[in-house]
Specification:
This protein has 209 residues and is of the alpha/beta class. Helices cover 32% and strands 27% of the residues. The chain contains five helices and twelve strands. The protein has an eight-stranded mixed sheet with strand order 3-2-1-4-5-8-12-10, sandwiched between helices. Strands 6-7 form a two-stranded antiparallel sheet. It is globular.
C-alpha cells in the first residue's frame, strides 16, 4: 500500500513510518524538517514541503492509497496547523482522488454523553480548550467531507514503542481509561485500522490497557 504520512517528524509520525515500512508499505514522509529523520529504506520517500502549500501537499498525496496524519502545533491555539492543515490535506485528497485518511486528534472531541463532547463539559481543563478547539475544527472538516475518515482522539502520547496492550472505543473514551497511550501503540492501531476499516467515518477513543 502507498501511504503518505503528515507530521512525519513527531513521535507518533516516526512510529507510523517505522511500522509501515516493517509491514512493507511504501511511505511518503512529508514535512518541513523531514530530512532530520535520517531514515533510509527502499520503500521510503522523504518529501520536504510546507503543510499549507497546496501544490506540495497535492504532489505528496498523488498516487497514495491512504493518508495518515499526526500533525501537531502549539497548545495555546496560536497557530492553526491542526485545523487548516487537515483542511488543506482534505482538499488535495479530493483533487488526487484519495479517499482514506486516519488522523490523530485530542480526547476532548470524544463524547461525554450522546449530545455533549468532553471539551464542552465544565470539568474540561481551561488550559486545553484552545488546542481542543483546533482538534474540534479538524474533526468538523473531516466529518463534513465525503472521505473515508477515522479520527483517533488520543490522550497523552508517551514516547515509547508498541506493546499491543491498548483498548479502543467508538465515540467514547474506552473503559478503563488510563489517559495515556504509547506512540508505538497509537501507530500500531492506525496501521491496523488501515487494513481492517473498523472505524470508518467515526471517532475513536484509545488508551493503554
Amino acid at each position: 500500500m502507498n501511504i503518505t504520512v503528515f507530521g512525519a517528524t513527531g513521535q507518533a509520525g516516526i512510529e507510523i513510518i517505522k511500522q509501515a515500512l516493517w509491514r512493507k508499505h511504501h511511505v511518503t514522509a512529508f514535512g518541513r524538517n523531514v530530512y532530520d529523520l535520517k531514515m533510509e529504506d527502499e520503500h521510503l520517500r522523504l518529501f520536504k514541503g510546507a503543510l499549507f502549500d497546496e501544490k506540495e501537499v497535492l504532489q505528496a498525496i498523488t498516487g497514495a492509497d491512504a493518508v495518515l496524519s499526526s500533525i501537531g502545533g502549539a497548545f495555546d491555539g496560536s497557530d492553526k496547523t491542526r485545523s487548516l492543515g487537515i483542511k488543506n490535506i482534505i482538499t488535495q485528497m479530493k483533487k488526487a482522488g484519495v479517499q482514506r485518511i486516519i488522523a490523530i486528534g485530542g480526547m476532548g472531541i470524544l463524547n461525554a454523553s450522546d449530545d455533549t463532547l468532553i471539551i464542552d463539559t465544565p470539568s474540561y481543563p481551561a488550559e486545553f480548550i484552545p488546542v481542543g478547539n483546533e482538534h474540534r475544527k479538524a474533526y468538523e472538516y473531516l466529518k463534513d467531507s465525503d472521505l473515508n475518515w477515522t479520527f483517533v482522539c488520543s490522550p497523552d502520547i508517551i514516547n515509547e514503542g508498541p506493546t499491543g496492550n491498548y483498548i479502543t472505543s467508538k465515540d467514547y473514551p474506552p473503559q478503563p481509561n488510563k489517559f495515556k497511550i504509547n506512540a508505538g501503540d497509537l501507530a500500531r492501531f492506525m496501521l491496523n485500522e488501515l487494513e481492517k476499516n473498523e472505524y470508518v467515518k467515526a471517532k475513536v477513543g484509545i488508551s493503554a490497557a
